[in-house]
Amino acid sequence: MSDRPRTLVAEDQYLLRDGLTHLLTAHGFDVVAAVATGPELVAALREHRPEVSIVDVRMPPTNTDEGLQAALAARREVPGLPILVLSQHVEQLYARELLADGTGAIGYLLKDRVFNAEQFIDAVRRVAAGGTVMDPEVIAKLVAGNASDPLAALTPREREVLSLMAEGCSNAAIAARLHFSEGAVGKHTANIFAKLGISASDDTNRRVLAVLTYLGRS
């Protein structure tokens, strides 16, 4: 990721689109395009190949799932292309599909649950760096849609750790939230990987695979 990540904003509401553009610019992002429709988003993704894109779900012309469809198409063309979905709605099917390739660099936040600029900018930076950031309400709806529980072997504490991992928290952040040491988080994380049958790899990929299992995707 460059010092000024090349960023795309896709939002049909002018005031929100303009506000996001100014906010991102003020925090060191280079906004290379700000678009209002699904077709414009597809064209801008192909033209600019941004380092991170903030994408609304429901955009013209259909005002249904134009944004997510464009994001999925872009990820098929460029695996791992960083996308942060910013929406008023949880589209379970498409959220799962975005997560399904296991490469990370995906976020899904709900507009009415972004409470300050620091929270939002931190999420954008984490997605741009290849991380996964999920609003807890999105996680809850995805998990609620699962017919089976692949996590039966995990202890309640391991489930807590995995839930925070799904939100995109680092080991240090998890330790702070649960009030124990990073070393303890590391042990819980290792146990989670072992119980879910996730073999040794780099930690970023293992975390993504664990999160996918948590959300019901193998």
From TrEMBL:
According to the UniProt entry, which residues carry 4-aspartylphosphate? 56
Carries keyword NAD?
Answer: no
Q: Which residues form the HTH luxR-type domain?
A: 147-217
UniProt keywords, alphabetically: DNA-binding, Phosphoprotein, Transcription, Transcription regulation
Q: Mind telling me which CDD domains this protein's record contains? A: LuxR_C_like (cd06170), REC_NarL-like (cd17535)
Which residues belong to any copy of the Response regulatory domain? 6-126
Note the SUPFAM superfamilies from the entry. Answer: C-terminal effector domain of the bipartite response regulators, CheY-like
Coiled-coil region list: none
Task: Kindly give the Pfam families that the UniProt entry links to this protein.
Answer: GerE (PF00196), Response_reg (PF00072)
Q: Does the keyword rRNA-binding apply?
A: no
Q: Kindly list the residue ranges recorded as spanning the membrane.
A: none
Name the InterPro entries for this protein: CheY-like_superfamily (IPR011006), NreC/VraR/RcsB-like_REC (IPR058245), Sig_transdc_resp-reg_C-effctor (IPR016032), Sig_transdc_resp-reg_receiver (IPR001789), Tscrpt_reg_LuxR_C (IPR000792), WalR-like (IPR039420)
Its name, as the record gives it, is Response regulator
Q: What is the organism lineage in this UniProt record?
A: Bacteria, Bacillati, Actinomycetota, Actinomycetes, Pseudonocardiales
